[in-house]
Amino acid sequence: MKVCIAEKPSVAKSIAAILGATSKKDGYMEGNGWAVTWAFGHLVGLAMPEAYGFTGFQKENLPILPKEFILVPRQVKEGKEYRNDPGVMKQLGIIKELFSKADGIVVCTDAGREGELIHRYIYEYLGSNRPCQRLWISSLTDKAIKEGFQNLRPGSDYDNLYLSARARSQADWVVGLNASQALSIAAGRGSWSLGRVQTPTLAMICSRYLENKDFKPQTYFKLKLHTAKDDTAFTVLSVDKYDTRSTADDALQQVKAAGTVRVTGVEKKEVKQEPPLLYDLTTLQKEANSKHGFSADKTLNIAQALYESKKISYPRTGSRYISADVLDDVNNN
Question: How far is residue 86 from each of residues 100, 147, 292, measured CA to CA in Å?
């Protein structure tokens, strides 16, 4: 039996339908020599400082730099303590049992850095040693899934992608936890949050806000002329800008004194304008915020839901082009 692990139940359902794994079990689908299970996003992550013996915010503990990072199941907060999420523990148990029985594992998490990390952290936490292959697709159409399974790649081909994701994860931990504790200790009261991404982003937002706040508008004047030749009416706007109303009025009087205006040149050219590129995630988030006031997270959640229902291609991408497996399904009309 081969086991597929997807990032979410909805994706697993689409894959299971193609593979013929139609028998529903607790936490997975089974049939036709396949078992298809799933995560719920990040089931496993890096442990908090308490796992390394550091409790509370103590100046003498900083910086906290583990020699080896410890992986733990996703946790929930109960009072002042964190405990393993019971639902996560149950699903990890199901995945562990399936992995132990598998002849091989097909990684079907999202085709990106975080998708790779989700599987690798689970795989490492469970101590599995089964050989892995990778399904790499950018859409969930039936055709894309079928072609993806016909072109499975060795899991080792994506080792560098995993190392990149792990570096990001550990960098967030080191910077976020140490900087947040250091700031909270320095402030002397309360808990303050700093992060590798959130803090410079916030600094950029604040800088832009202060620039806008300090901006002093400058008033200027331009001349606008409405005229016509035969049956053609047109408007002309002066190229020059006038700092004061008096200089603009002087220029206006000179135009009026001339009595007539003369067209000194006409330029006509034919241009071809390419249609705009498709959205990548950042462009989509910016436009959704500009037009509808959506947060980046809300836009991502909507796009992810549309992807899982096969309405759009994989949204977590910087590419603005249609992939080859999607192109044939696009309606040319």
Answer: 21, 37, 38
Asked if 15 and 145 touch (Cβ cutoff 8 Å), the reply is: yes
Distance CA 98, CA 13 (A): 17
Among 85-99, 209-223, 302-316, 319-333, the range scoring the smallest mean pLDDT is 319-333
**Range with the lowest mean pLDDT among 8-17, 76-85, 148-157?**
76-85
* Per-residue pLDDT, 333: 40
Element (H, E) at 228: strand 224-229
Residues 6+ apart with CB under 8 A from 69: 46, 47, 170, 173
Q: How confident is the model at residue 325 (pLDDT cuts 50, 70, 90)?
A: low
What amino acid positions are annotated as catalytic residues? 314
**Looking at the DSSP assignment, which residues form a beta bridge with residue 237?**
224
| Both tokens assigned to 169 | 């994860």
Mean pLDDT in the chain?
A: 91
Decide: 326 and 148 in contact? Cβ < 8 Å: no
Cα–Cα distances (Å) from 87 to 8, 73, 248, in that order, read 14, 10, 73
Domain with CATH 3.40.50.140 in the chain: 2-169
Residue 158 contacts by C-beta under 8 Å, 6 or more apart in sequence? 107, 116, 134
Contact at 8 Å (CB) between 140 and 11? yes
Taking the C-alpha atoms of residue 118 and residue 111, their distance in angstroms, rounded to an integer, is 11
Rounded Cα gap, residues 134 and 131, in angstroms: 10
- Average pLDDT rounded to a whole number, residues 172-184: 95
Distance CA 317, CA 25 (A): 33
- The predicted model scores a pTM of 0.77
Least confident interval from 45-49, 98-102, 324-328:
324-328
Question: Which CATH code of 3.30.390.30, 3.40.1440.10, 3.40.50.20, 3.40.50.140 fits the domain covering 2-169?
Answer: 3.40.50.140
Residue 57 CB-density burial (10 A; 0-12 exposed, 13-18 middle, 19+ buried): middle
